[in-house]
Amino acid sequence: MCADQLPRTDTSRRRAIEIFLGGGILASLASFLYPVLRYFVPPAVVDLGGDEVVAAKSVEMKPNSGKIFRFGSRPGLLIMNSDGTYRALSATCTHLGCTVQYRPDLREIWCACHNGTYDLNGRNISGPPPRPLDVFDVHVRGDEIVVNRKREA
Amino acid sequence: MAMLQINLRRFRSARALALVGFLVFAPCLGYGQDVNSCLDCHSAQPGRLEVTPEKFSQDIHAQKGLTCVSCHGGDATSYDPAQAMSRKAGWKGKIDRKQVPQLCGSCHSNPTFMKQYNPSLRTDQLDQYHTSMHGKRLAAGDTKVAVCTDCHSVHDLRPPSDPRSTVNPVNVAKTCSRCHSDASYMKQYGIPTDQFEHYSTSVHHDAMVVRGDLSAPTCTTCHGNHGAVPPGVDKVQNVCANCHTFQAQMYQQSTHSKAFEKASLPGCVVCHSNHGIHMPSDEMLGTGPTGVCMRCHTPGDRCDRARVAIQGNLTQLDGAIKDADAALRLAESAGMEVSEARLSQDQARDALTKARVTIHSFQTALVNQDIQAGMKIAAANQKAGKDAMVERNHRRIGLGICLIAIAMMLVGLWLYIKKLES
Amino acid sequence: MFAAIIRWLDERLKLEGLIAPLRHKTVPTHRLSYWYFFGGITLFLFIIQVLTGILLLLYYRPGANEAFESVQYIMTRVQFGWLIRSIHSWSANLMIFTAFVHMFSVVFLKAYRKPRELTWITGVILLFLVMGFGFSGYLLPWNTLAFFATKVGTEIAGQVPFIGKPIMIFLRGGEEVTGATLTRFFGFHVAVLPGIVTVLIAIHLFLVQRQGMSIPPKLEARWNAHPSEKREMRLFPNFLLRELMAWYVAMGALGALAALFPWTLGVKADPFISAPAGIKPEWYFLFMFQTLKLIPSKVWIIDGEVLGVLGCSLAGLLWLLLPFFESDKAPRTKVWITGLTVFALVYVIGMTVYGYVAN
């Protein structure tokens, strides 16, 4: 075997190993760590999930008015009574699923689709709706009006 | 002693008679007040004279304690027909059709009487009946028209809340159709007999009978039940407006309202029909077989142009919603999470529904407002679907890079192992 | 630079003393030695579970009100949250699969024989605990499928005579599956089970290191007769480098699965709806579930489900004690045991397939 042949294949061999192994370690660890590091960064929207939501700011609500807000997957209805208290209910009509609205003139909740009405406690009082609306808990936190689903027993 | 013996012998025969009489009439003791000779005989009568205890036990009046005698008079304790059905015992026989409303009303129009059974029952049925077409014609001598027993049935009369009752909302249309769909029976009145046929194809029938929505309209909802009359031409939209308020409001303020009134056309019915009301579609604004506008309007005129614009807008939004749905479905099948956009689609659909209601104002600008709101939402959702696919592609590229790095590492390890073991 | 770091540590920890014995360790090489990798792969997947599990803990919220939404949040809002969660779900299934493969390879290579009975026992217990990990973790996203699978699973546990009901109540945190069950399962999944499993893995690995790798009986006899035919490789670094390659392949497979077939979210659980048709447990419970379904509702006077549960428990116990049934004194039992273990494998695979196809 020629003396100068061995070292050459040896060094080129070793270089190949260095490149693949070294590069491989770096590349693979980088591709593992990159997502993990990005994962640690909290997202911009600190969504509290579908159980609590800020329905409105106190300043935007007027007495005897209603506002539709998004609650998780479904619309909700926030009502400010004339005496300054709040009420929040599901805004999905129990008849055929249309979105209900607050009627300040009737002080009732009304569904435009087939003229169903509910009282402020969500009870269906006239028209087609077969069941009452779900009622949510509302409380004021600072200048925000926060709506919660009723806690499970 | 002999006197006693003779007396006893006489008493013995009296005792025997008493015993026999007792045995004959003993069954009556067991029934007490439930002796009903009428049912006992009439359960074995043929045809229309047959009333069985099973049938009668279903009757609400029987359950409340009324008996045959309460309406027909007579003597229910006697099995002798001459006695049971004697005029002296107050027997009325078969109640003449003309007398039926009066008979029923003798209790049902008496609030004091009815209060002891059901205080919340109305007691104005008879008054209402007198205002109805049936009541008026009966007063004029026509006995073919409906009286109480025709709709409510008799002897097995059930309350309307009972699903088997002939006047339960689900069954009302069928009950009315017994006469009103019988062409030969109705021949002399000159009114159509296809109402039930049409109604059976309608969206209201579908809601009531198929979906079980008891609030859906049936014959009595629009025509009244005891005071049944067809609503007059100018009253139709009032009836529809009870449920379809928004459409009615918009129609009321529209140009069509005055125009139809002047031409004595029946409002809503002109486009939507009265009995065979089908699920409306955007095709109604078109020129196809279900198109309604061009029945009156001239092609090329202002209204025709408005029609084209409105239909175009609706089709555009409908298409946008469908496109967004397709994009989201594609993203979902690729494993991407798009549940928020999916829910937002409901809002877009709401906007389309709203636009279809606004048609009744017949103003292109108003319809367009709702359309544009919906378009924005649908466009955003479609973008969400497309973004999800872009993200999916990014993920695959990322995976590719990672796999290359891993492959590199594997090659490196393999070479290293080989070197170690050479 | 690598060598410099090693030297720095060695000066302080006397690493040589720890590594030196490892340098002498060998692993036999033969036609079937590829099966030796599966234990290590299972360990690797467990480590992945711990790491991704800790990452998920940063965003997950246990509790019926928030669990589903928090997983949805991870999948949709958190950067690479979908990746971490999908890897966690896929790795769970792969780990149970490789654990089964590892166990059956040990069975067929007869590695459970004396002196390795304790290794077998700790291993089987680990398998049960790992399936417990799977059962408890499955509920945590609080979706409909998981809710009902948990309901059915704990119901079956409750069928054990006498102690079944208390066990069911203990598992469920009450009579029914509720938010309390979720909290409890969360506690099991992130604290109780990891603690026990870590200790058992440590014992298991210690035993393997102490006793070395087992060789199939026939080969062992041959090598004892002809020592020159013995083939070995060094554990460190040769075998371990190969093991590392296997780990990298597993990592690649996980990444591909997570990216190409992300784990679905499902629909949030609603305790008041009726169970959807065809509820079945995860695939690793399917063979037992299908067995239960096939047993008639009453066998003589015993309730079918009770019989099934007791039968499965008995089978599990016998499986745990497998090494003690085989001894060198009665060679015929060896054939029996081989036959039974082959039957066991065929049964598990067959019933799993049947369970899928039957629905």
Task: Indicate the topology.
The complex is a heterotrimer of chains A (about 150), B (about 425) and C (about 350).
Chain A: H1 5-40, E1 52-57, E2 65-71, E3 74-80, E4 86-90, E5 101-103, E6 108-111, E7 116-118, E8 124-126, E9 135-141, E10 144-148
Antiparallel strand pairs in A: 1-10, 2-3, 3-4, 4-9, 5-6, 6-7, 7-8, 9-10
Chain B: H1 2-31, H2 37-42, H3 53-57, H4 60-63, H5 68-72, H6 81-84, H7 100-108, H8 111-115, H9 125-131, H10 133-139, H11 148-152, H12 169-180, H13 195-200, H14 203-210, H15 219-223, H16 236-241, H17 245-252, H18 255-262, H19 268-272, H20 302-333, H21 339-358, H22 364-421
Helix pairs in contact in B: 9-10, 20-21, 20-22, 21-22
Chain C: H1 2-13, H2 15-24, E1 26-28, H3 37-57, H4 67-76, H5 81-108, H6 117-139, H7 144-157, H8 164-172, H9 179-211, H10 217-225, E2 232-234, H11 235-260, H12 283-294, E3 298-299, E4 302-303, H13 304-320, H14 331-357
Antiparallel strand pairs in C: 1-2, 3-4
Helix pairs in contact in C: 3-5, 3-11, 4-5, 5-6, 5-11, 6-7, 6-9, 12-13, 12-14
Short description:
Chain B is an all-alpha fold.
Model description:
The complex is a heterotrimer of chains A (153), B (422) and C (359). Chain A has 153 residues and is of the alpha+beta class. Chain A has two domains: 1-41; 49-148, 3-layer Sandwich (Rieske Iron-sulfur Protein), CATH 2.102.10. In chain A, 24% of the residues lie in helices and 33% in strands. Chain A contains one helix and ten strands; from the N terminus they run αββββββββββ. Chain A has one helix at residues 5-40, and strands spanning 52-57, 65-71, 74-80, 86-90, 101-103, 108-111, 116-118, 124-126, 135-141, 144-148. In chain A, a hairpin with a 4-residue loop joins β6 (108-111) and β7 (116-118). The mean pLDDT of chain A is 84. Chain B folds into three domains: 33-94, no CATH class; 98-230, no CATH class; 306-421. The longest helix of chain B has 58 residues, at 364-421. Chain B is elongated and about 140 Å long. The model of chain B has no long low-confidence stretch (mean pLDDT 87). In chain C, the strands form two sheets. A two-stranded antiparallel sheet of chain C has the order 1-2. In chain C, strands 3-4 form a two-stranded antiparallel ribbon. In chain C, β3 and β4 form a beta hairpin. The model of chain C has no long low-confidence stretch (mean pLDDT 90). Chain C is an all-alpha fold. Chain C has a domain at 36-215 and 233-278: Cytochrome Bc1 Complex, Chain C, CATH 1.20.810. Classes of the chains: A alpha+beta (153), B mainly alpha (422), C mainly alpha (359). Chains in contact: A-B, A-C, B-C. The interface between A and C is medium-sized, with 20 and 23 residues.
